[in-house]
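#help-structures
NK: newbie question, is this the right format to request a structure? protein is 6-phosphogluconolactonase
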Amino acid sequence: MTDDTRSQPTPDGDGGAAPEVVVHPGKQELSDAIAARLVTALIDAQAEQDVVQVSLTGGSLGSDLWASVAALPARAAVDWARVEFWWGDERYLPAGDADRNDVQNDAAGLASLPVDPTRIHRVPGPDRSESAEASATAYGEEIRATDAGAFGIMILGVGPDGHIASLFPGHPAQQTTDAIAVAVHDSPKPPPDRVSLTFEALRRSREVWFIVAGADKAEAVANGVADAGPDVNSAAQVKGEERTLWLIDADAATALPTD
Ligand SMILES: O=C1O[C@H](COP(=O)(O)O)[C@@H](O)[C@H](O)[C@H]1O
């Protein structure tokens, strides 16, 4: 499954695990590899704990991976009723809107899995909340009420501009502290209104998996792995407590140092 492992985990001085980079030849191979890794991680985790907390991402690869999972025979070995699903961010749009991350994940294959509907935690849209602020508060309370401790696996797409979830480099929402989720307005990428987990919440993850494909994201990957500042790259601000994985395709790896 691993075609090219460019770094090994080492303790990171800033807290969190140092990045490991795994490169796959193309986007389809990457999607299939992420799916296989996820299914294996869930099977392993379920052998030791009751419910596994997984946070999902939007973006094309974030949805493609569910098509890969749905096509994987080993998916049957996962007890999907014991997986709790969250989203790292959501576009502030009504339930069912085709531009919502959860709708795109569902359409790609998530909805085909025998998941317990009460364990799918969708971010309220304008049909279920008065404002993005109210939605962020409600979503944060839902996370706190579940009292699940850290996320087991936090899956994050990365934009060409280095954003993760809906935290954009240099955007004031990046600076939110003492909160689990934040309302984001004036997002540089449409739609303008969103709800995102904060850096603090994203960091409370045992494993963080950045999933990235495409040459247009090569610089964002290089900056993320190289610990660039928050005005340049949001991904660099988040590491997993035990593991930080960059799962990328060859095009996204082109700006990384060759050593
Ligand atoms: O808007 C968003 O974009 C990012 C990345 O999307 P991509 O299509 O460039 O892969 C995604 O991770 C985030 O969840 C989403 O809301």
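mod (FA): yep, format's fine, and the tokens are attached above. The CA atoms of residues 108 and 195 lie 22 Å apart.
NK: thank you!
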